Each structure stands twice: as structure tokens, then as C-alpha cells.
Amino acid sequence: MDKTSGLIGGIIGAAIVVAVFGVFLLSPSENLKEIEGANIPNAIGQSTSYTKELSLIEIFEKSESGVVRVNVQRDDSTNSNGVGSGFVFDKKGHIITNSHVINNAKKVVVTFLDGRSYNAEIIGVDEFTDIGVIKVNADLTLLHPLGLGDSSNLKVGEPIAAIGNPFGLSGSMTSGIVSQLGRLLPSGSGYSIPDVIQTDAAINPGNSGGPLLNMRGEVVGINTAIQSATGEFTGVGFAVPSKTIAKIVPSLISKGEYDHPWIGISGRDIDPDLAKILNLKDAVGFLVINVIEDSPAAKAGIRGSDGTIAIEGVNYPKGGDIILSVDGIEVRKIDDILIHLQRAKSIGDEMVLEILRDGRTTNITITLQERPNEN
């Protein structure tokens, strides 16, 4: 395999994360063997947040009543049962969990802190961010919404806590720190989830869909996956940030889905070897190799590579636009483009790409379209 074919950038809105171990979406514990827009009161800025930092004991006491157990009966050939987590979003009975927790569910049952259980209706799922919304017609006294914090304010090293049902053990809490920000996480949809929080708080199967909390008791993420060789926690967990939750959930509640913006290119990050070959001063930027037909990029005139060149037995892409910035934000690698799309852009928005073409920089404006279901 040559170097180019071994380094594949996904269709933007779709990057590949290569890991030494495996990245496991936290499938619900199976038989305990596996490890509306402005009207929604839980939007960021409207949450019932706390102004001072709390102890871990206080965080648990204030949050445990808003965390639920999600039991799932699968509609598949094995008819397997699973256990995941979720948290109350509003007083209307909406509960947030992971889409992979409730995918292909024949029946979903939500159990609250006091042991009372209710059948839940699946309201909407977004597999591209692994967010799902279910709804219960529960006693109002059981509905204790957890307020959303602003995940964009998180810092590496900041203390963090997770609550959920690892291995089906209800109401469990773990703590740790934010170990990194802005990760890319494969979602199983063919696209990757951008802007993901990395944490060393112990997260295991059954934690899926539970809240990640800052020290003010605000939800800053939804626990989604771990990186592991065994499927059990080994020190690296991932959570979809609350900024993404706040953007996606209102659409899931109002229409059952969220339409993601899309550019329609694939390529690779500029590394030192490629920078030397292309006579670039710095190894930054994203090289466009392929442009998808009829995509926003194609319509705007973005150019991909027109072949390869062999140097010392290794094939490198020849030609192609190099994206240097998006809307004035420097692009060091594909992550920067995907995070900007997720945080700031919607279908129909314009986005200005600064590109390097034939040794000259120029700006090209593209109009974002809806991401196709299949890449």
C-alpha cells in the first residue's frame, strides 16, 4: 500500500480517526455482561445552573434525580436486552440519551431514581452526533431537568464528573478531569463526530447517554464512547459536548431529525513530508484530493488532485487546493474545518475558504448543502 492510499481523509463532515486501540461506542450493557428551539427552557443560558463550584457530593445530590436508567429491548434477530443511561432535559418529559442506545429498539423503558418506570417514545435520533431523544409521560414530581453548561468554556485539566449506569449498576458516579478537547470520534455512520470531549473519568458500557458534569453541576457533555482494546475503560473516555446537544436536540424534538451542513471534499492533512514536496513553509492546512460531484465544493470550483507523483517509491498527491482557513479561522488540519461546521454553520449558510492554488492564495465562497445519508 502506498502512503497516499494509506492516509485517507473522509468527506468533510466525515473524517477518519485512526487509533492504536479500538474506539468503542458504549453499547448498552447486555444482560449485565457487556461492559422546540427558543421554547425549550433548557437551552444554554437558560439552565438552572449554579454560580459556585460544588463538591462532588453536592454535584451528585443535585444531579442524581435527573439521571435515569434506559432499558432497551432490541428489535433484531437476537431480541437482546440492553441497559444505558439518560438525563432529563425538560419538564415535558424529554430525555436525552445516545442514538446508539435506542437504535433498533422494540421497546424502551425509563426508570427514575425512586424505581418508578415508564415506557418511553423515541422522539428523534441523530446518528451523526450519536444523540437521541426519548419522551415519557411521567409524574411531574419525577422530572428534574439538568441544566446545560457551555462546553466551549472547558479547559484541559478541569475537574469533571460522570453519572450513569455502568454495567447496569444504577446511579454510579465517577470523577476525573478533561484530558483533551476537540477530538474526532467515529460515529458508526460513516462520518465522525467533531469537537468531542476527552476525559479520564471512568466510563464503561451502560454509561452511554449519561451526563458529563462540570463542577457547577451543569451538563457539559453526554458520555458516548471509550478507547480500549478490551471494550472496558482504560483511561480514555469521550463525550459529545453540550454545545452540540443544544444545537441538535431542539430539532430532534420538533421534527425528529437534524440536517447537517456538508462541503463535499476528501483529502489529507498536510504533514512535513507533503509540505516539503509541495514547497510549503509550514506543515499546516488540508489538501483537497477529491471533490464530490454536485457538492457545494464542486459548485464553488474547489479543485482536487489531478494525479500522483512517486518520490523514493512513495506516491504523493499532485495538485489540488490547500485549505488554509475557513471564515478567517486557521486550518491546521481537518479537525478545524469540522469543528467550525459543527459549532457555527447550518444548511444554506455561506462559508469562505482561503485556499492556496498554484502558489497563490485566494478566497472562495461556498454555500453549504445538506449532508447526504451515505458518503
The order of strands across the largest sheet is 8-9-10-13-12-11
Report the strand count.
Answer: 23
As for the number of domains, it is 2
Largest sheet properties: 6 strands, antiparallel, barrel
Mean pLDDT: 83
- In the CATH scheme, what's the topology name of the largest domain? Thrombin, subunit H
Q: pLDDT under 50 segments (min length 5)?
A: 1-24, 27-41, 43-50
Fraction in beta strands: 35-45%
Helix content: 10-25%
Helix-strand makeup class: mainly beta
Characterise this structure:
By secondary structure, this protein is mainly beta. 13% of the residues lie in helices and 37% in strands. It contains six helices and 23 strands. The strands form five sheets. The protein has a six-stranded antiparallel barrel with strand order 8-9-10-13-12-11. Strands 2-3-4-7-6-5 form a six-stranded antiparallel beta barrel. Strands 15, 16, 19, 20, 21 and 22 form a six-stranded antiparallel beta sheet that branches. A hairpin with a 5-residue loop joins strand 9 and strand 10 (192-199). The protein is elongated and about 65 Å long. The relative contact order is 0.16. Residues 1-24, 27-41 and 43-50 have low confidence and may be disordered.
How would you summarize the topology of this molecule?
Elements: E1 22-25, H1 56-63, E2 67-74, E3 81-88, E4 94-97, H2 99-102, E5 105-111, E6 117-126, E7 131-135, E8 159-164, E9 172-186, E10 192-199, E11 211-213, E12 219-228, E13 237-241, H3 242-255, E14 261-262, E15 265-269, H4 272-277, E16 286-291, H5 296-300, E17 308-311, E18 314-317, E19 322-326, E20 329-330, H6 334-344, E21 350-357, E22 360-367, E23 369-370
Antiparallel strand pairs: 1-12, 2-3, 2-5, 3-4, 4-7, 5-6, 6-7, 8-9, 8-11, 9-10, 10-13, 11-12, 12-13, 14-23, 15-16, 16-19, 17-18, 19-20, 19-21, 21-22
